[in-house]
Amino acid sequence: MNIILMAPPAAGKGTQAKRISNKYHLEHISTGDLLRNLNDEKINELLAEGKFVSDELITEILENHLKSLPREKGFVIDGFPRNKAQAIAYENMLKRLNRELGIVIVLDIDKSVALKRIVHRLICPNCGAVFNDMFPDTKAKEAGICDNCSHKLIKREDDTEETYEKRYQIYLEQTEPVINYFKEKVYHVDSSINADYTFEQIEKIIGGVYDKH
Ligand SMILES: [Zn+2]
User: What is the distance in A from the centroid of ligand 1 to the CA of 159?
Assistant: First the structure.
């Protein structure tokens, strides 16, 4: 079982990837984490600015990581492929590694809901936890304080309407072609309500696809 998870920013991709990997015992591969783990100053700078590394670099890093996984271990990948060139490179990589593409799950979210999540998002600079006062299930127990480590929460400088508009536009332009490319492998999920509802729909899709085998 291999799953590609695609979503615009703030659709809860990271959260869902973790839940999928826990329930179905899949390796969670976040290309963002793979890059951060390199501890390369230039790459970290790019990531902090919300920019992307080259298709070649990310593809190479991913292939090396997949090679290190046991053959029988399935995975859920988030943050890749981001554009059609990466999608094609990924297919070739899977052929080389003798692995299946599996399915592509796309989290759809209303732009206005996503915007609300971003603009009111608070993060813990100490442990990375994310909170949002606008939604009951993501509210910090004590306003402005991290539930996990009691550190003071901060708002990220680039969590603005303007930055979100830009990122959403990039997502539409670059990932729509990927969704079209993988067409018959793609399943859409409504991610506008809350994390539990999103996950229920994902469970139904995975059950429907993999129970038949
Ligand atoms: Zn914390």
Answer: 18
Helix, strand, coil percentages, rounded to 5, for the chain: 50, 15, 35
CA of 179 to the centre of ligand 1 (A): 35
Which pTM value belongs to this model?
0.84
Query: Is 121 among the residues known to form the active site?
Result: yes
Which residues, including other chains, have CB under 8 Å from residue 181's CB and lie 6 or more apart? 84, 87, 88
**In b/e form, how buried is each residue of 28-41, taking b as 16+ CB within 10 angstroms?**
bbbbeebbeeeeee
Q: In order of start, what are the domains of the chain with their CATH numbers?
A: 2-109+162-202 (3.40.50.300)
CB 4 within 8 A of CB 103: yes
Tens digit of each residue's pLDDT (9 = 90 or more) over 156-211:
887 888 888 888 898 989 988 999 999 999 999 999 988 899 999 999 999 999 87
Rg of the Cα trace of the chain?
Answer: 17
**Residue from 167, 185, 204, 212 carrying the catalytic annotation:** 167
Indicate which residue of 156, 183, 185, 212 is catalytic.
156
Q: 95 an active-site residue?
A: no
Which tokens in the block code for residue 39?
């501890």
